[in-house]
Design brief:
This protein has helices spanning 21-30, 49-57, 75-81, 92-103, 106-110, 113-126, 135-152, 159-172, 179-205, 211-217, 227-258, 260-268, 273-283, 315-318, 353-370, and strands at residues 33-38, 41-46, 61-62, 132-134, 219-220, 223-224, 289-294, 298-300, 303-305, 310-314, 375-376, 396-398. With 400 residues, it is α+β, with helices and mostly antiparallel strands. It has a domain at 68-269 and 334-398: Cytochrome p450. It has a five-stranded mixed beta sheet with strand order 1-2-10-7-3. It has a three-stranded antiparallel beta sheet with strand order 4-12-11. A two-stranded antiparallel ribbon has the order 5-6. Helix 3 (75-81) crosses helix 9. 40% of the residues are buried. The chain binds protoporphyrin IX containing FE.
Amino acid sequence: MKTVINQTMPSPPHDFFQNPYPFYERVRSIHPICWGNLLKQSGWYVTGYEEAKTILKDTRFKNRIPLPLATKKYEQLKNIQSEMLLFKNQPDHKQLRFLVSSVFTPRMVDRLCPYIEKTTNDLLESFRNKKAIDIVSDFAFPLASQVIAKILGVPQEDHHRFREWAVSLIQTIDFTRSRKVLENGNEVMLILRDYFIELIKKRKRNPEADLISLLIKEEQQGERLTDEELLATCILLVIAGHETTVNLISNSMLVLLKHPQQMMELKEKPLLMERAVEEFLRYESPTQMIARVASEDIELHEKMIKKGDQVYLLLGAANRDPNQFNEPHLLDIKRDPNHHLAFGYGSHFCLGAPLARLEAQIALQSLLGWREDIQLAAPDLQWRNLIGFRSLNELKITFE
Ligand code: HEM
């Protein structure tokens, strides 16, 4: 088959971060796998749903740490990231995933339900004398921090430190990161490493019922996690458990406030909540972009992807592909089927999906039942300048 790189991607408009969807449409209309250069990253940008799925299924497209291995800088970040499940490939990935998923199970997540409910209700109770709050920093962040800290078995008095660490580290895996972000991330990684080395030591001496103790004990067919893998897994869970969940809760609340009729319907029919959360995941996907690298020349959908080419999967675009979703730009909390790619696809499918879903369902249910008079404080909201994540700076709401 004759393959040519013909039309490349246009530059993104100035308001790209505020509303990336028209740009995604334009790029998809050129080709669902389009060569381009977005924010100084050259590679193939995938905006089509089927195309994204095909690539995520194909193990010739490898996951890789987002920092160049050649540079001697950011040693801590690189060492730890390369031990993370997220950046491993077969066969190492399969083995580590098997070990971690044997303890971080949907059943374990189910058992957290009362803790998540209590934490949510305590937070709402603490707003009793206020007239306004920021959903992002006052509600979603503390909730996500406390839940992930509880899972890992981090002492209560350290919960607040998690938030700062998670914020610095998530930026290091976004492609918009600056040198300052990486330097800061490298330092935070050192602090987090020392923190978890101490905690792991303690749990080795005195195991408790938390995930760290379970991971230390975990052994399958003679295989165990190495100390480096254990450390990297704890840190990955801190990062993964924060930003995306905070974004899911905040984005969902924004979307509901902008669709009052559907909000009303959800209040009246709480059984719709599960399906509604799937729609929020599709409509404002918390993870907008993930990346792969081609390990050999691969011909795909009339494009010749060369060995070493970077491939950027725009999940937020795939989730609005009209070839897969009817009226993709319309919110429909009853959408069915809704096989979105918000949690990725294939072997790296998000391990925290059951937790993220449960947290969002409980958080939204509680918020909707809390007060009748919640309003957006201001109609103009600022999205953070991140390409990998759909993340609000703040979401102020008022109530009388
Ligand atoms: C709404 C919330 C979340 C979203 C949208 C999300 C999204 C994703 C996506 C897209 C991937 C695949 C990355 C890739 O293929 O390159 C992923 C992987 C992963 N996620 Fe999540 N995530 C969320 C919450 C969580 C939570 C709460 C945790 C754990 C506490 C978690 C843990 C992980 C882990 C460990 C992986 C790596 C799995 C592997 O490589 O095998 N995630 N997530």
